[in-house]
Amino acid sequence: MDRFSRVLIVAGILCFVFAFVLSGLYPYMITDAKTPEASIAELAAVVPPVFKSLKDADPSGFVAAFPAAAGALSPLELLTETPDEAAVQAGEAAWRAVYAEALQRGRDNYIADGCWHCHSQYVRPVANEEQRFGPVLPAANDNNALQRPVLWGTRRVGPDLTHEGGLRSNDWHLAHFANPQGTSPDSVMPAYPWFLRTGFQVRRTIAPEVAEREGLDPATSYPVPGLYATQAEAQAALERVKAALPSSLAAEQSRLLVAPGTSFNGRGFSLVAYLQWLGTWTPPAARAAATGGEP
Amino acid sequence: MSSTSVPLHPAGDGGRDLPAEHAVSGALVEKALIRWHFLFAVGFLLTSMASGFLVSLNFIHAYPFPGIEWFSVNRLRLLHTNEVAFGFLVNALVGALYYAIPRLTGRRVCARWLGWVILVVWQALMVATSAGQVMGFTQGVEWGETPTGFRPGTFVLEYIPVDFLIELGAVLLAIQFLVPIARSLHKRMYVSLWYISAGLVWLILTYVMGNTLPEWTLAGSSGAATAGLYIHDLVGLFLTPLGWGLMYFFVPIILRQPVWSHALSVIGFWALAFFYPLNGVHHFLLSSIPMSVQYGAIISTMAVEIVVTTVIVNFFATMWGKGYALRSSLPIRWFYTGMVLYFITCLQCFFHTTLTLQAVIHFTDWVPGHAHLVMLGVFAFWLIGIITWLWPRITGHEWYSRRLNSWQYWLSMLGLMIMFVDLLAAGVVNGYMLRNLVPWMDMVRAMGPFWSVRTFAGGMILLGQMLWAFNLTMTMRGGRPYDYRSDLVLPDGADARGES
Lengths: 295, 500
What we know:
Strand order of the largest sheet of chain A: 2-1-3
Distance between the termini of chain B: 8 Å
Number of strands of chain B: 0
Low-confidence stretches of chain A: none
Number of helices of chain B: 14
Strand content of chain B: under 5%
Order of helices and strands of chain B: HHHHHHHHHHHHHH
Largest sheet of chain A: 3 strands, antiparallel
Helix content of chain B: 55-70%
Oligomer: heterodimer
Mean pLDDT of chain A: 89
Helix content of chain A: 40-55%
Mean pLDDT of chain B: 90
């Protein structure tokens, strides 16, 4: 045996190669090799309202994070302004570019902060996982640029995120990143203040009759879109809101106030875009099959 | 003279007139390199365990640095895993190889200057890895999180390309140790050299595969298949062969007993070479990877257990009749504890790789429990044993305190046992709660007591290593000259210095 030692070292390398072919190359050949990997631009072809509404919640912050979003019309802007067809088309193209960038950056943050250590993206057809998390996805769904490197994960301290997109609102995610125990008592997830930007915002307290009818604290308030760096800027914004109120809502003027507030920063916007995207994309072949060949 | 028939060697050390297995000859072995590699290894062991301990505090709502980006829990977790694998294990393995290879081959390592280059470059890379990981430059591949330096999936360089440099370091390591093996004075290749030379070559291949393919070319399920292969190959084709290679070297020289069956050991080697790399996909069972590949991985995982049994049988047969060594020799106790835990680990694999158990225990704390048993209970225990045996020989000083070493053993061993059983139980409870659709937060709350026990056990282990580090430092700083006879393995009651 010793006479062949050099031959056998080659055999050792062959063992490695054999295993690679059998458990690396072979599964690739019979699954993903058949269709090209979907690029991020393909994944971002349809921009969902949940992403666009991030701009409505914090217009200046969103545009600061994604300069290309300046010309992209948010749902609120489409309602309040009257853009022409060309502006809407240009806005839609801008949205797609912004969305692609946000998905990419969001995925990068998901890796950098090790989200995948505690959250899987991997529903199995056992242990009632479909009931808890949603359908099992075929290999084709993961054959996309955002799953390279694959983010299936190996541990679930937090729930699976395969179908997280659209499950919760952007505001829930904002509150959750600021203080996970606030939305999920006893959660072991740490807070992520570096996804957030703090400042001042204009808030509107609920109407006293609503508070009484619903049994709520009369001091309950909800934010008017926009987050400002200083209290003075927020006060100026409050005056603008006041001035814009129609006379029929004059009673509301006294219910406006300035308070400290939180919004996402660039990283947070990207990460929430990525989370809201998860599970929303279907590969073209599966879409065609589901609609009987119609694209 | 003692009443036993154990042959004694002349007094003294340092390459005077000792049989080869006991003398450290300055000419053959690079003592300074061994010492530095061991020092860095222990340093990284402490930082790794400290970060692991901090992470565990998060799970009992007692994390001391919340809201600081560079102390984010999940980034510290990266330090925990990467520093123990590449900082502690690699440094300690390399240090041990600097001792074993020249003795097995009768040749010096390739070049002393190359050794210093590797030493310095490797530590710089480890610091760059840790710094990059807390700053957020990591890769999303388990055990392959060392920063590639490039923005994910692009060629835009945004950090030190650590991956590339580690690969270069792996090549240098192979040159350093394969040259003396190729020039060996002995005609027959001892089984240790089979394991070690194969492990060094496999490291190069494995590292390239795991740090390029899932990141650059293969997405989704095929990426997962390759990533699983990488996770497993790093343990199975690097740590395992080097670990067993060193065991086949150190156990016989400490016991002064040849390996029971050299033929069986070589069979064990080739069976490992064939079956181990086929296991990779078992990290992603019940997934969209083709079922044929998954079944293949399951069957070869079970085959590995049979291989492991032959190796274990060989080692226990080697110790046959010298069981007292477990009491009298701390290194032997570390080694054999590691072997028993290795057997348990692989036995665990045999069962939990089945789809039936996978359905329950995957995604739970069962898996970290298993991982700690392998990385700490097997490889770290072996290397701690090796360092414990070599340290007085390298420094020339008698231990500052042998009792502290014993404390380290019991704290680490009991700590690990508590942690292992605790995480296993947590995994089973968690797995059934997942299956039974228990509300998520109820499940997290149910894990609380288990996580508290884990932190306690982790504290025991960390404390043990701190005692050891203190002991190593004090020993290095001075003390009585070391007398190798104090480490001779003798039956109870016998004394090597004839003072029984």
